[in-house]
Automatic annotation (TrEMBL), chain A:
PANTHER family: STEROL 3-BETA-GLUCOSYLTRANSFERASE, STEROL 3-BETA-GLUCOSYLTRANSFERASE UGT80A2. InterPro entries: EryCIII-like_C, Glycosyltransferase_28, UDP_glucos_trans. The keyword Transferase applies. It comes from the Bacteria. It comes from Streptantibioticus silvisoli. This is Glycosyltransferase. The keyword Nucleotidyltransferase does not apply. Keywords: Transferase. Pfam families: EryCIII-like_C.
From TrEMBL, chain B:
This is Phosphopantetheine-binding protein. Gene3D superfamilies: ACP-like. It holds the Pfam family PP-binding. InterPro entries: ACP-like_sf, PP-bd_ACP. Residues 36-89 form the Carrier domain. It comes from the Bacteria.
Amino acid sequence: MSRFLFVVPPLVGHINPLLGVAEELAGRGHEVAWAGYPEQITRLAGDEATVFGCDMPDGGLVRPPQLAGPAAFKFLWEEFFLPLADLMAPGVDAAIDAFGPDVVVTDQHAVAGALVAERRGVPHVTSATTSAELIDPLAGMPKVGAWLQGLLTGLRGRIGDPSATGDPRFSPHAVIAFTGRDLLGGTELPHERTYLVGPAIAPRVDRSDFPWSALDPDRKRVLVSLGTANLDAGTRFLTEAVTALDGLGDRVQGIVVDPGGTLGEVPPGILVRPYVPQLELLTKVDAVVCHGGHNTVCESLWHGVPLVIAPIRDDQPIVAGQVVDAGAGVRVRFTRVDAARLGAAIETVLDPSGGHRAAAESIGRSFRAAGGVVTAADRLVDIAEPASPAARPTDRQCEEPT
Amino acid sequence: MGTETTGSTVDELERAPLAADPDVVLADLAGMLRELLEEYGLDDAEITRATTFHDDLELESVDLVSLSGTMREHYGDRVNFAAFIADLELDEIIALTVGQLVDHVVASLRATERG
């Protein structure tokens, strides 16, 4: 039996896919501990989870709503992921001391996990929770790529092994990506130890008190959600969405997630909830309108539900493009779309003749075949317990072609 | 709705001699950008040299790819948009204006005229 330390940033979307993997490993008799933000991890993983606390930036990831595009990218690395790694590093070191993991599983954006594990000589595996950072979006912007590598090299000098090389976002031992080939298209993967396991669909604790009986069996049901990280940016969009859904109200029932409580009175027939049990709800809806967060997108596709995507920033425009290219949804402009355009987009994906539903179902089948948390756990156990000592990833140069 | 931004006008421009005149280039690029933005409901945007790609037009990388394709149709090999972007630092990309792209196009066209 082996010990796995999961290192995660204080971002729900990055933690969620690993919850099912942790459960799967524990079910096989392995030990899992977490390093991150204790209150958050305990809330998501349960009180019995073993958690080593790491220092965290005050207030989490807070950005002005209008910050998007390359400016958001700059902010994300310079003002969040890099300081986060510096803050988390001592906690990761302490967790390795206390827990003695065989493998460190580190989120792609909790770079401290990769760099500290590398310095400590513990094999580390990258957990990639978005399909966007597998495709090198910076390929056409070499100076931007060099800027990021400069930041990461400086960070490695502070918290890692300065003599090491390689991009800490892509462990040479393995990259486990919670996405699928049908979404990525023909993209080349970072290296041969990149495992596309599909989304990690695992039951989550339902604290939402959702009124299931209010769902209308006679209308198509459309879920509108902007995810967990965009409370500040979504009021205009949600308002337009409510108007669009009201316009379609004779044949569509809207279910709108409004965690910030920014919507006032809404027309009758539209359900507005601060939280929803998303996975369970996805079995009962016909379309999802969202911001293109990778988890929501993959969970929708896993259930064969087509999408209208209004990407805000970060990986979302890339994920949206992947969904459109796969034929499973349409894209609208987050800051510009009005009720009329949004309503038309919803009707487009609901119309069976458009093929969006069929494409989503096809991707869903491929996701299920990829194995999700079971495959992820298989790969992690392979690395923790190699068949022969010679196969141990730490003992060979993984960058070299074999 | 103006009359200068329809697809057929772009086709006509394509057949016209390509002038390395900054005002003409600005008008051409503004037409391409309006066409690109039309599908997002931003067809009435005023586009000047000072217009920024990100803050003002809210273009995303996928839009830049589209623009690159449209520019290639219009200018052929005389203008290399990808090389222009590739030479920019992150802060330059964040602050990129239409005027900077106009200047790049004008310089590229003049270079091929000289050559």
